[in-house]
Design goal:
Number of strands: 15
CATH superfamily of the largest domain: DHBP synthase
Number of domains: 2
Largest sheet: 11 strands, mixed
Bound molecules: threonylcarbamoyladenylate, magnesium ion
Organism: Cecembia calidifontis
CATH class of the largest domain: Alpha Beta
Structural class: alpha/beta
Oligomer: single chain
Catalytic activity: L-threonine + hydrogencarbonate + ATP = L-threonylcarbamoyladenylate + diphosphate + H2O
EC number: 2.7.7.87
Distance between the termini: 27 Å
Shape: globular
CATH architecture of the largest domain: Alpha-Beta Complex
Order of helices and strands: EHEEHEHHEHEHEHEEEHEEHEEHEH
Number of helices: 11
Keywords: ATP-binding, Cytoplasm, Nucleotide-binding, Nucleotidyltransferase, Transferase, tRNA processing
Helix content: 25-40%
Main location: cytoplasm
């Protein structure tokens, strides 16, 4: 198992040797390596069991440092960075040659973000390279929002996890780039589109296209528990699965189901607060996935604000494994 601690100097030493370290961010935990060292980047793909055609996000200390890695920043994207970094926003920008092709899977754009977590910003501040970091989960599984999640799944394969507590946003960053002159969202995430539109006006959303995805994170089946995950009306699903005699667990937005025992149900936010629901989502999916049940029943959130990003993850979790895993 990995060592878990808050020691930035230790994390730095491992990263400088080309080893990988689990890092906290405000969205989810990352599996980080030196982005300018192709051997470290190759380790990321192998530890995660991730196909090499799925590019990584470069994490940097601040907006100024991004200039080392990209040729230019289109004006609307710069406005977004100024407004929302550090924060759950990733920008797709034209890359400079210094960024290894392995990081970008050969694309001529690189995904960049400045994460909002004091430990990881402290770490980035003492490193003289940026960090490539995908979410620290095996490819296709639910993203980790606690150090223990990372340790459970990747602890055998990495030496150290920087423990920054529970992620306060709980959903991966929103990925934004340009299609010509049009600001375009490629992955719904922790930064609500309404906030982006307040800065740059109407955006295009390409996050739901399924054919030839530009962002492989748009693969339909992703963020998926190992148990079948069924979405629908919970009253109907409960009746149906009771009839079938199946042992099930429930992931609800806010409603409590008195006829179901407490340990078999989780409410994402009893107050109906979508930020709280987002923060709790992945830990709840993991907890239910570990129960002695054969199926997880769930429902969609209200399709507004962060609810849209939560619903995106719920729908991908519900795609059968045989799909596009
Ligand atoms: O919140 C986050 O973004 C977390 C934390 C750790 O920062 N990271 C994360 O990384 O979610 P990952 O690797 O799980 O998802 C990154 C997504 C992938 O779907 C990838 O396809 C997309 O970003 N991506 C990366 N570079 C890209 C590029 N140049 N063009 C299009 N999509 C890109
Ligand atoms: Mg991921």
């Amino acid at each position: 198992m990995a060592e878990i601690g808050k020691d930035i100097a230790k994390a730095k030493a491992y990263l400088e040797k080309g080893d990988l370290v689990g890092i906290p961010t405000e969205t989810v935990y990352g599996l980080a390596g030196n982005a300018l060292n192709p051997d470290a980047v190759a380790k990321i793909f192998s530890v995660k069991n991730r196909p090499s055609f799925d590019p990584l996000i470069l994490h940097t200390y601040d907006l100024d440092s991004v200039g080392h890695f990209v040729k230019q920043i289109p004006a609307p994207l710069r406005s977004l960075a100024e407004r929302f970094w550090p924060g759950p926003l990733t920008l797709l920008l034209p890359k400079k040659d210094i960024v290894p092709d392995l990081v970008t899977s050969g694309l001529d754009t690189v995904a960049v973000r400045v994460p909002d977590h004091p430990l990881t910003l402290g770490l980035l501040g003492v490193l003289d390279f940026p960090l490539a970091a995908p979410s620290a989960n095996p490819f296709g599984y639910i993203s980790p929002t606690k150090a223990s999640h990372v340790n459970d799944q990747l602890g055998e394969k990495i030496p150290y996890i920087l423990d920054g507590g529970s992620c306060k946003v709980g959903l991966e960053s929103t990925i934004v780039g340009m299609e010509g002159n049009q600001v375009t969202v490629y992955r719904l995430g922790g930064l609500d589109i309404g906030k982006i539109e307040n800065v740059v006006g109407k955006v295009e959303v390409m996050a739901h296209s399924s054919s030839n995805p530009k962002s492989p994170g748009m693969l339909k089946s992703h963020y998926a528990p190992t148990k079948p995950f069924i979405l629908g009306d919970l009253d109907e699903l409960i009746a149906e699965y009771n009839l079938k005699g199946r042992r099930f667990a429930i992931l609800a937005f806010r409603r409590y189901f008195p006829q179901i025992s407490d340990h078999l149900q989780i409410q994402l936010s009893r107050d109906g607060d979508l930020s709280e629901a987002a923060k709790n989502l992945f830990a709840a999916m993991r907890a239910l996935d570990s129960l002695d049940v054969s199926v997880i029943l769930s429902e969609l959130m209200p399709d507004v604000g962060l609810g849209k990003a939560i619903n995106d993850r719920l729908k991908r979790a519900a795609v059968p494994e045989a799909g596009n895993h």
